[in-house]
Design a protein that fits this description.
Number of domains: 2
Structural class: alpha+beta
Strand order of the largest sheet: 1-2-3-4-6-5
Oligomer: single chain
Number of helices: 8
CATH topology of the largest domain: Yope Regulator, Chain: A
Order of helices and strands: HEEEEHHEEHEEEHEHHEH
Helix content: 40-55%
Shape: elongated
C-alpha cells in the first residue's frame, strides 16, 4: 500500500500545473518532443458549457523549427485516424485540439493530446530525416564516383585540425591542400562551413571549403547568398553540375 501511495505521488510530481488569468490550466507534462528536450505543454481552456483541450500548436511549431514537414500523406492519414479514434483534431492552424463537456475527462484528455503532440512531432521530423539522409547519400555517391574516376583519395566524416573539432563530410585530394566538402543540410551546418573557411584562412592553412545545400530554401536564401562570401564556394545541389565542379577543382 505504501509503494502504491509513493508511486502515485511520484507520478503526479512529474506534472506541473499553472493557472492563467483566463482560468486556463497550463499543464507541463513529463513527455518530451523527441531529440529536442522540450517538454510537451497542454492547456485546458474553460468555455461556457465545455472545455477546450489543446497544445497551442507547439508540436507543429517545434517540428517546423527543426525542418519538419507537416503536409505529407502519412501525417494526413494519421490525423484522419486520430480524429476518428480520439476526437482530437489537427485543425487548420496546425493545432491539436478537442473539446469535452464532462470535467472528469480533463485529465485523460490532456494526456491524450500530449501523446498526440509527441506523435505529430515525431512523424513530421522523421520524414525530414529520411529526405536529409537521401540528399546526403546523393552527394556522397557523386563524390565517390568522381574520386574513383580521377583516382583521387577521399575520406569521410573527418575531424579537421582546427578549433572546435568541426567535421567535414568529405576530405578530398591532397591532405596538404584538401577540398573540404560540407553537406549543408541546415542553416547551422552551413554556418559551420563558414567557420571552417574562416579558421583555415586565419591560420594560413591550405584548404578549399565547398558547401553543398539541397536548395536555397533549405538553408535560407539570405544565408545561402551570404555563404559564398565566407566559403570557397556554396552551391545548390544539382547532380551533373556538382560532378563537373568537383572534376574541375580536382584536376
Amino acid at each position: 500500500m505504501e509503494l502504491t501511495t509513493d508511486l502515485k505521488r511520484d507520478i503526479c510530481s512529474l506534472f506541473d500545473v499553472f493557472e492563467e488569468t483566463s482560468g486556463t490550466q497550463r499543464v507541463v507534462t513529463p513527455l518530451e518532443y523527441p531529440g529536442s528536450g522540450d517538454r510537451v505543454v497542454v492547456r485546458a481552456r474553460p468555455r461556457d458549457d465545455h472545455w477546450v483541450i489543446d497544445e497551442n500548436g507547439e508540436a507543429a511549431m517545434y517540428a517546423r523549427m527543426t525542418g519538419g514537414e507537416l503536409s505529407s500523406d502519412s501525417i494526413k492519414r494519421w490525423a484522419e485516424n486520430l480524429v476518428q479514434t480520439t476526437r482530437i483534431e489537427l485543425d487548420a492552424d496546425e493545432q491539436l485540439t478537442t473539446k469535452i463537456e464532462d470535467p472528469r475527462l480533463i485529465a485523460t484528455t490532456l494526456f491524450q493530446v500530449a501523446a498526440a503532440a509527441q506523435q505529430l512531432f515525431a512523424l513530421a521530423t522523421s520524414a525530414k530525416e529520411r529526405e536529409t539522409s537521401q540528399f546526403k547519400e546523393q552527394v556522397s555517391s557523386i563524390v565517390r564516383e568522381v574520386c574513383r574516376d580521377l583516382n583521387v583519395p577521399v575520406r569521410s566524416n573527418v575531424t579537421l585540425p582546427i578549433m572546435g573539432d568541426m567535421e567535414a563530410d568529405h576530405l578530398i585530394g591532397d591532405e596538404g591542400n584538401p577540398l573540404i566538402l560540407v553537406i549543408a543540410t541546415s542553416t547551422t551546418r552551413l554556418l559551420e562551413a563558414e567557420l571552417m573557411h574562416m579558421q583555415y584562412r586565419a591560420s594560413n592553412t591550405k584548404g578549399y571549403v565547398l558547401a553543398v545545400a539541397e536548395n536555397q530554401a533549405a538553408v535560407g536564401v539570405k544565408h545561402f547568398n551570404r555563404a559564398n562570401y565566407f566559403t570557397g564556394k556554396t552551391v545548390a545541389f544539382n547532380g551533373s553540375d556538382l560532378s563537373q565542379l568537383l572534376r574541375s577543382q580536382l584536376h
